[in-house]
Specification:
about 260 residues; 2 domains; three-stranded antiparallel β-sheet
């Protein structure tokens, strides 16, 4: 290998964050051309994760390392949310299915790259494209060993779970998760509920928080939250909750 190529490879090794994916575009930024990337791959210095994405050979890269590349290199507005975010923060103790699905949220027009979508992350990917909430409110930085990723804070993650219910998230499961959220920040909850465009999610959030009898619930000023008008039937046959104009599963109402 020429001295120039050795220097470029050394620079990559020095700049690379262990446990993460490195995109072809990032390699080009540090002077490693597409042709040189192919040579490094053939020589065993790079291993393909998919088209335009690489990792260090023999390095174990999880979905978190892939999401890191989407956020920090591709600059895509994608984050881990709903049950995935709650699980990472140790708040999904009652979840039955959260670990099997990777919940990623983004604005409506965001495209998940093929390399990420097609790679075997040992999780089913559920990419939810929605404008239900602003992309600037309700996030936290989750630290892995050598890097961090942007995920939903508990307050936002709970709203995202309810956005997925009842078709993709069981409402009884959502309530059990809500029961464990005794330390939500009322100011952030207020801001999120006022910013959220999903009437169903807002009504369910308020209903479940009241049902869980959390101390922060009375601190939420519902007068400034638009909960829409009219009945929302979440199941064909169920229990009608007049205060929130919701028809919910009998199994939830009975809890």
């Amino acid at each position: 290998m020429s001295t120039s190529k050795e220097r470029k490879l050394t620079r990559f090794l020095n700049l690379h964050t262990p446990g993460t994916v490195c995109l072809a575009s990032r390699l080009e930024e540090i002077g490693i051309s597409r042709d040189l990337q192919k040579r490094y791959r053939r020589s065993g210095w790079l291993e393909s994760v998919g088209k335009g994405a690489f990792k260090r050979p023999a390095e174990d890269v999880s979905w978190q390392g892939g999401l890191y590349a989407l956020q920090s290199q591709a600059k895509l507005p994608i984050h881990a949310g709903a049950m995935t975010a709650l699980t990472l923060q140790g708040l999904a103790h009652y979840a039955r299915t959260g670990s099997a699905t990777l919940d990623l949220f983004s604005p409506p027009k965001t495209i998940l790259p093929a390399w990420f979508k097609n790679h075997d992350w040992k999780h089913r990917i559920r990419h939810v494209r929605t404008s239900m909430l602003t992309t600037s409110l309700g996030f936290t930085d989750h630290r892995e060993t050598t890097f961090g990723i942007r995920i939903s804070a508990p307050e936002r993650a709970m709203l995202e779970c309810l956005y997925l219910s009842p078709d993709e998230m069981d409402l009884v499961e959502c309530f059990h998760v809500m029961e464990g959220l005794a330390n939500l920040r009322p100011k952030l909850v207020q801001e999120l509920l006022q910013a959220c465009s999903s009437v169903k999610s807002k009504r369910l959030f308020l209903y479940l928080a009241e049902k869980a009898n959390h101390q922060w619930r009375p601190l939420i000023d519902t007068a400034h939250i638009d909960v829409g008008e009219g009945h929302r039937r979440l199941v064909r046959d169920g229990t009608y909750v007049a205060k929130y104009q919701l028809t919910v599963p009998d199994s939830l109402a009975a809890l």
